[in-house]
Amino acid sequence: MSRTKILVTGGAGYIGSHAVVELYEAGFQPIIVDNFSNSQESALRGVEEILGVRVPLHRIDCNDAEALRAVFAEEGSLRGVIHFAASKAVGESLQKPLEYYQNNVGSLLTLLQVMREFGVEALVFSSSCTVYGIPDALPVTEQTPTKKANSPYGATKQMCEDILRDVAAAPGNTLRTILLRYFNPIGAHASAKIGELPLGVPQNLIPYVTQTAAGIREQLTVYGDTYDTPDGTNIRDYVHVVDLAKAHVVAVQRLLDKQGETVETFNVGTGRGNSVLEVVHAFERATGQKLNYKIGPARAGDVPAIYADVTKSVEVLGFQTTTTLEESLASAWKWQQTLGK
Hints:
The protein is 40% helix and 17% strand.
């Protein structure tokens, strides 16, 4: 049986590698594009061990139009694209705004041009709950107004969404797009062969938690405890990365079946918010590891609280998460233990 080819940009990254596994297991043929600026080749070895096959890889930058054209020409018969490739650290984007706009917005423009040239008409775009800014009410729905972004990273996601809506509204447009607004991906594959693999000091909470438990980091800093939340710490919607990956498979199939509108937006989260301290204590319960942590100053660009209303994802996309916070944290710890020190 011939498999439907789906290009996965950033396919060696944290979410990308899990999506590649889920795509293949659902009967698709993922084709990976990655320049390894924020990922490691060991992730692909993990994917290969899980699937028992080597997934095709093109080592290119999505901002390089000629290289991208060569991939489309070589692979032929690509039916769709999942676009993960982007710089994604809120704090870093405040330090390097120009690089973030170039990489995140520039790569989407290049990809859209090449997709049009080759007649590829299905795109799942990796967006983010950061597009909501600091919301007036919780939980946020897909109709919640987007506000001025708290960081250049968030602004690039807003810009990319605007570009895709404008393309969809243009006369003669044939592109169909699903915008998936992620909340906070955590955890690792049940095999512990792939997981979150931050380069250098982790920017995200969970790898810092697991590295602290493993003794790699001396202490976890909880940034701020005076937010307007029940325990004063930030609240986020933590979604297991495999659940998130499965949402992409559902989205790809919806696009290929030509269901729904030309451009659709879905929140991908659990529908529940957990504070940083709740996560710390849930990790301790799930793993039996005591965490050394302290309270530090709040960070610039951090939204006090955000979590998803997932009604639309459940009712329209037919997708719902199944993994609990404790299960997600246990999988992250299992993954950390395979990495050693």
